[in-house]
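Ligand: NAP. Inputs:
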Amino acid sequence: MPPRPLGTTGLTVSALGLGAGRIGGPETADADVDRLVGAALELGVTLIDTARSYGASEERLGRALQGRRRSVILSTKLGYGVPGVPDWTGPAVDAGVDGALARLRTEVIDLVHLHSCPRVVLERGEVVDALQRTVRAGKVRVAAYSGENEALDWAVRSGAFGVVQCSVSLVDQGVLSGAVPEAGRRGIGVLAKRPLGNAPWRFATRPEAPDVAEAWDRFGALGLDSGGLPWDALAARFAAFAPGVSAILLGTASPAHLASVARAIAAGPLPTSVLSTLQAAYARAGAGWSGRI
Ligand SMILES: NC(=O)c1ccc[n+]([C@@H]2O[C@H](COP(=O)([O-])OP(=O)(O)OC[C@H]3O[C@@H](n4cnc5c(N)ncnc54)[C@H](OP(=O)(O)O)[C@@H]3O)[C@@H](O)[C@H]2O)c1
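Predicted complex:
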């Protein structure tokens, strides 16, 4: 997988990143994470994204990356969830970074995102300043923001972040005419979260999880035709080659799913005619849809 520049951070990443949001629960064993990380490295994946809120994901990755930490760009997200410390304060960021360093068993984290931090908090400046202090202290390489809508727009224009993370998929195309090109103009790297749009084609009936249910509603409203391609390949190629996107973060616990998407990306961008159909469907049905956090 050819490396891509992550904006102007000086870092490079594979177009396919592993989103480690699905390896933090009790259904996953440490050995599963070792296998998943091993498979990712064999496929040429050099980017792994986790978060404080993903259960045991950070700890498990820390363990699985022992001895191979340098093979990946490691990304996490924080700002909350430190016992005894109010969320979205400078101390929550400071202690959050220290905690993540310990759980990930590393001396420096490549990317640290403020995780769905509301715009009003960003504007206060305290958490942004705290994150930048951790960069100056050598604990974090790049300050990043993860979120949507008006908070994302503020983050992109603030000059405070080298990377942003936002939803980009067949059912999340709104940012492609807003925050993503603006980020590109400013040299900010863009990580596409939820790149399969939560793979809504898997469900015959409306799923229960609210975020996946919303994706399923959107997918139905778009009325897309996969044109004979497997849906995961269509969705992955759409997101991975969207102009301005540095890498996608595929959420999976499955080495087979990761490999399937790696093969899809190796096939390159979608043909222009296919792309136009997907964009036209969104312009018709999705014009008022907001970014899915
Ligand atoms: N910052 C934020 O607030 C935020 C929010 C959401 C996501 N994210 C980031 O984005 C990553 C991905 O998000 P996501 O997991 O919500 O959405 P996603 O990647 O669009 O979809 C993941 C779902 O698709 C399934 N899947 C993966 N590969 C597949 C394939 N080839 N064929 C069929 N199904 C497949 C996964 O199940 P299997 O495990 O069975 O493969 C999982 O249920 C997260 O891990 C995280 O890094 C960030």
